[in-house]
Predict the structure.
Amino acid sequence: MGLKQKTVAGLFWTFTQQFSLQIISFIISIILARQLSPSEFGLIGMLSVFISVGSSLMDSGMTSSIIRTKDPNQSDYSTVFVINIVGSILIYAIIFFAAPYIAAFYNHPILTDIVRVYSLTFVLSAFMGVQRAKLTKEMNFRLQMLIQIPSVVGSGILGIILAYNGFGVWSLVYMYVLQSFLLSVQHWMFSGWRPDLKFDLKRFKYHFDFGYKITLSGLIKTIYENIFTIIIGKYYSAAQLGFYNRALSIRQLPISNLSIALGKVTYPLLSSINNDDVKLKEVYKKLIKQVVFWVVPILILLIVIAEPFFRFLLTEKWLPAVPYFQILCVTGILIPLQAYNSNIFKVKGRTDITLKMTIIKKIFGITGILIAIQFGIFGLLYFQLISTAFDYNLDAHFGGKLINYSIFEQIKDIIPSVSLAVIIGVLTWTADGFLFKSIALSDLLRLVFAGIFYFTMYLGISHLIKLSAAKDFRQLVLKK
């Protein structure tokens, strides 16, 4: 199978996987949000930084190194597997003994037991890290989809049953633990790879040299990204953290579906052509256009329909999350662009630049947070937008230099899609406010009419004006 055919097949199965998983996860989360309180979701949100940090330390960036390595052998895979297992056990032990201090920090004693049980997820994940990396390198996203869907469904059913039987926050804890367990078991059953349990010091040094820089960068990024959660959980109520996390998780739907799906396919793809800068720029340029063409209009529409959307899906008790959600959606427009520019450093093997820029970004970010916290939770949210814009500019400038694709070229390429999405968004907001809402339509009908109006206009006009991203999509996927 040629590179183009492999990419199209990978895109198809990855998008199918992402959309299927997100739809299933979204339905499960809606059912749980209707049954559980914002405070219970807030308690889980308080743990996100510790789980994320543990996962980053456990992996050490070595699975990314395997994906990038040309023709890795059994020694490569087994060495990384051993490191993942040993690392996960050590990190779990640290978090287990730190649990009472975490609970004391947030002043929620129940967190001691929750941390100790929930942290089992990254130990379980360590058993499947190499298998998943191997499948990704082989671009076998069909099998990954077939593994993930039953894991999400099975754990989701458990979570719902427990929630309706009064288990409260533990419904979420047991759901995530079961999901990790099912994923690990199925990767062992279906991936076709088994470790030798041998440790090759030479291969360890090779993968560690590449991976530790990614790990440090990822660790700093993880702590920074979760600092908003830490601050909200520490200085505000668990309910407010629940509102923030619910807004953030819904905002992630379009970003996860499109950006993560594209990222899984394009990292091994771009790595395979990392020595051809002309081709790399061409592929990357089309990638950026596609991300913007699909992500931006979805986020703009969500901003417009946020209030009826939250009320219809989550009930009135979640309406305080609406303004959080709208600000986070604006921030979300820049996140995929920043992430893909950052990805160039990994593709080109310049993880040293990634580490240096991560330090610069976080110094800027922490300084800004210390100022923004004085203006309450909305000060933090607006600063998050400023910080993301700063990160994007930094990554686009230095990442663009590596493939001769300047930030000015990038902005020029994405402006048509962004402008069209915003204009149609204003028209949809006007139609919703002065027509759909004024004739007392139900929230469901407002959502349906707004969605149809927006995407009919957006896709129709993009076709009429021959927007390059729309043309690229038809050629790549629809072959027209």
Summary: The mean pLDDT is 83. The chain has two domains: 1-225, 235-480.
